[in-house]
UniProtKB/TrEMBL annotation:
Example of a GO MF term: ATP-dependent peptidase activity
InterPro entries: Peptidase_M41-like
Coiled-coil ranges from the UniProt annotation: none
Any one of the GO BP annotations: proteolysis
Protein name from the UniProt record: ATP-dependent zinc metalloprotease
């Protein structure tokens, strides 16, 4: 996982740090009835649709803001009016959400933040940043005993595992060694082929960050499920902390092309932390939020499976970022910060397990970011 201000990328496995009127409530988006003709609606929203397809965040956001200024009481209704043309079906149901699908290609992360702010102001994202101030609450000293008492898990269960030493990777290694021994026993000498395979694995690990092996292993359902659980943890905590999410990359090859180390990555941004780093300092509260998002993937795995396999790069990024504090954290302070962040994220995920499950299912179905966020909001609204 690479850290590059102002973007914060967080990855998962062996992974990586990186919007006439009906009744209205603060928990539901406003809904308004269209006063334009069907033809004008289709024409006006065609430009927006094209911007979304081009992943043009600036263009899509400009359209929404301009339309809001011209017609503040006008958005697409949930149902066509008066049985109007079926073409309107293409434009019903809150098209504003789709602006989030353009964030991944955005170079200006302030635009990403503006997209989330725009949707929140309009009532679409009532839970975005809802728990931002949780970092100011509760005791700061979290010992291993406190962590176990609160979660029921030993500290070792939150430690990412080395490949081949535990869990599914250990079974894979045992199966490989067993198969190799069997073939040799049968008199089948494939050592030249084995040497070639090991050579390719070394090249993949050294120069490609292991993305080729990650691509192959991601096709194994249990392993891919863990990746989804891990990334959904990053995504949900970032959302609840009010950190705009640029996107979630689940394809290892695409992650490598985008400069994300590991098998997957969730890219988010914390403006306060970015500004602090630019000024050569790092505010404790912003660092706390960052750490919670960073350790959320490990916390999600521990919550669902009882232990964590992924997150080694998350821990490495935490250590590197800790050195940016003035004064830098000691080893004991780093350990306490990690346990505190894990506990905070673990509890938030536990309290909102339905939202986390909804995010996992949406990612598993390869839904767009806008749909994933909608599913989170829907799940949280049913928990009330």
């Amino acid at each position: 996982m690479a850290f590059a201000s102002p973007s914060l990328d967080v990855g998962a496995f062996s992974p990586t740090f990186f919007l006439s009127k009906h009744s209205y409530s603060p928990h539901k988006p406003r809904q308004w009835r269209i006063i334009s003709t069907p033809t004008s609606v289709l024409r006006e929203w065609k430009d927006y649709e094209d911007a979304v397809k081009r992943k043009d965040l600036a263009g899509a956001l400009k359209f929404l803001k301009t339309r809001e200024e011209k017609s503040p009481n006008l958005v697409i209704p949930l149902q066509p009016l008066n049985g109007s043309s079926s073409k309107l079906d293409l434009f019903v149901s809150e098209r504003d959400w789709e602006v989030l699908d353009t964030c991944l290609n955005a170079d200006d992360l302030r635009l990403v933040a503006n997209a989330y702010a725009f949707l929140k102001d309009r009532g679409f994202l009532p839970n975005f940043g809802k728990f931002r101030n949780i970092v100011l609450e509760g005791p700061r000293n979290v010992t291993p005993t406190v962590l176990k008492t609160s979660t029921g898990l030993e500290v070792s269960k939150f430690a990412p595992k080395k490949w081949g030493l535990s869990g599914t990777s250990q079974l894979t290694l045992i199966a490989f060694l067993g198969g190799t021994s069997f073939l040799l026993y049968q008199g089948i000498d494939f050592r030249p082929n084995l040497a070639a395979v090991l050579g390719l694995a070394f090249v993949d690990s050294t120069f490609l960050g292991g993305c080729c092996l990650a691509q192959l292993s991601s096709y194994w359902p249990p392993h891919r499920r863990r990746i989804l659980v891990h990334e959904a943890g990053h995504l949900l905590i970032a959302y609840l902390m009010g950190c705009p999410i640029r996107g979630v990359i689940l394809d290892p090859i695409v992650a490598m092309q985008m400069g994300i180390q590991g098998q997957a990555g969730t890219q988010f941004w914390d403006e306060k932390m970015s500004n602090d780093l630019t000024e050569g300092r790092l505010d404790g509260t912003a660092f706390d939020r960052y750490c919670m998002v960073l350790f959320a993937g490990i916390a999600a795995e521990a919550l669902i499976y009882g232990d964590a396999e992924g997150g080694e790069n998350d821990e490495n990024l935490f250590r590197r970022t800790s050195t940016l504090l003035q004064p830098p954290l000691s080893v004991a302070e780093m350990s306490n910060q990690a346990r505190w962040s894990l506990l905070q994220s673990y509890n938030l995920l536990k309290w909102h397990k339905h939202a986390h499950r909804a995010a996992v299912k949406a990612l598993e179905s390869r839904c767009s970011l806008s749909v994933v966020i909608q599913r989170i909001e829907d799940a949280m609204s049913t928990d009330r």
